[in-house]
Every structure is written in structure tokens, then in C-alpha cells.
Specification:
The protein is of the alpha/beta class. It has a single domain, classed as NAD(P)-binding Rossmann-like Domain (Rossmann fold), CATH 3.40.50. It is about 45% helix and about 15% strand. The protein is built from 8 helices and 7 strands. A 7-stranded parallel β-sheet has the order 3-2-1-4-5-6-7, with helices on both faces. α2 (about 20-30) crosses α8 (about 220-230), α4 runs parallel beside α5 and α5 (about 105-135) runs parallel beside α6. It is globular, with a radius of gyration of 17 Å.
């Protein structure tokens, strides 16, 4: 069932240069989807697109900073121009510079708000008119276990990821007349580059300890495949998962 329901779907993925986005692109490409890759690191997504094409897949890469609404719109427009439509939008780009609030890392806070919240909103804004017109589509937003639980040092990050859940629920209710599906995926500790964005050494040390039990990014890709592979009349709205050993 999975290849038949995923094959030929046009999937736009932000944050596709590594981690969750890269793993999803590889898995969806192997199942016959068309993947359109957006990320700031152009060489990384160019190499990934070339790899997928060499394996017989279809892929397009375009440098995209999700904090710039015009760049996200250009990514979606390029996908629609090349392939005629966008079936799935995966708003995946995110950063996680944890710090204690008393340290007043305003630049880090603003960066998380810009990438983790505004980036998701820019993706929704770019793709929603196309999906409304076709009365078909699927928007997948990436939250986190931190969107469900908060711990010292994660307050702002947790707030941004909770915001993704709130936005996704509002979106779910608003798009019902257009038969658009919505999914929010909240991973726990997954082996990605996210911990490397932490600027405070002591906080980074604690997070690295947590991530010693991290599972591979293909765990997220499988969640994406599960949500996408359902029949069109089934809407998987939320997936929360952790490594089996993760307590938080």
C-alpha cells in the first residue's frame, strides 16, 4: 500500500540538508515520491538531489532560508512550476539553542522564534492557496517532545514547539472544507545536528547526555511515511514518539 499512495506525490521539505529532512527525502524518494529540497546549505541539498536522481528518483534543490517568506514562496512556486502541484509540505526546519532564561540570550530566542514559528507559518502561507484550489494536500509540521514538556534551559524552545502544535490544530480545523490533511510530528531525542546549535557549554553538555540514547533520523521518516500513506479519508493529526529509554 505504501508505494502506491506515496509514489508520484510532490513533497516539499524544508530543512532538508541534514537530519529529519534529509532522512525523509531519502525514504520518500525510494518510495517513488518527487522531493523538492529547501535548506540554507546549497551544496548539501544539491548533493542529496544528485544522489536521489542517480538512484532513479526525481528531486529538485533550491536554497531556502525559512525566515524569509519570499524564499519559502519561491521554493513552493518552483515545485509547482516544475511538477504541476504540491501534494505535501513538510515544515521541518528548526533550531534548538537551549539556555537558561537568566542568561538573556536574546539573539538565540529570536532565532528560534524566527525559524521554528515564523518558518512554519511561511511554509503554510506559501502552500495553502495551491492546496485550497485543488481541494487536496497534506501539511506536516514538526514539533517536539519539548512541545509537550518543558525543562530548565528549554523554555523558549519548548514555547516555539508548543506554538507549532497550536498552529497545527488551528490549521486542521480551518482546512477541513478543502479536504487538506494536517499532521504534527513530535520526536523525542533523535540523532540530528540540533544539539550543535546550543551556544551554552554547560547546557550543551546536559543535552548531549540526553542524546546518548537518541534514535536514528529514519525513525522520523517512517512517521512521515505512516501519515502520508493513509487513505485520503484518514487524517493522522498528531504523532508523538521517543526512544524507548527516554524518560522525559
Amino acid at each position: 500500500m505504501l508505494p502506491d499512495n506515496i509514489r508520484d506525490k510532490v513533497v516539499v521539505i524544508t530543512g532538508a540538508s541534514s537530519g529529519l529532512g534529509e532522512a525523509s527525502a531519502r525514504m520518500l524518494g525510494a518510495l517513488g515520491a518527487v522531493v523538492v529540497l529547501g535548506a540554507r546549505r546549497q551544496p548539501r541539498i544539491d548533493a542529496l538531489a544528485a544522489e536521489l536522481q542517480a538512484a532513479g528518483g526525481r528531486a529538485l534543490a533550491l536554497r531556502t532560508d525559512v525566515t524569509d517568506a519570499a524564499q519559502v514562496q519561491a521554493l513552493v512556486d518552483a515545485a509547482a512550476a516544475r511538477y504541476g502541484r504540491v501534494d505535501v509540505m513538510i515544515n521541518n526546519a528548526g533550531v534548538m539553542p537551549h539556555s537558561l532564561l537568566e542568561r538573556r540570550r536574546l539573539d538565540d530566542w529570536n532565532r528560534m522564534i524566527d525559524v521554528n514559528i515564523r518558518g512554519v507559518l511561511h511554509g503554510i502561507a506559501a502552500v495553502l492557496p495551491l492546496m485550497r484550489e485543488r481541494k487536496s494536500g497534506h501539511i506536516i509540521n514538526v514539533s517536539s517532545v519539548a512541545g509537550h514538556k518543558v525543562r530548565p534551559g528549554s523554555a523558549v524552545y519548548a514555547a516555539t514547539k508548543h506554538a507549532v502544535r497550536v498552529i497545527s490544530e488551528g490549521l486542521r480545523m480551518e482546512v477541513k472544507p478543502y479536504r487538506i490533511r494536517t499532521t504534527v510530528i513530535s520526536p523525542g531525542a533523535v540523532a540530528t545536528e540540533l544539539p550543535s546549535s546550543i551556544t551554552e557549554p554547560d547546557v550543551a553538555h546536559n543535552v548531549r547526555k540526553l542524546y546518548e540514547l537518541a534514535v536514528g533520523a529514519d525513525s522520523f521518516a517512517r512517521a512521515v511515511v505512516y501519515a502520508m500513506s493513509q487513505p485520503d479519508d484518514v487524517d493522522i493529526n498528531e504523532i508523538l514518539y521517543r526512544p524507548t529509554a527516554q524518560e522525559l
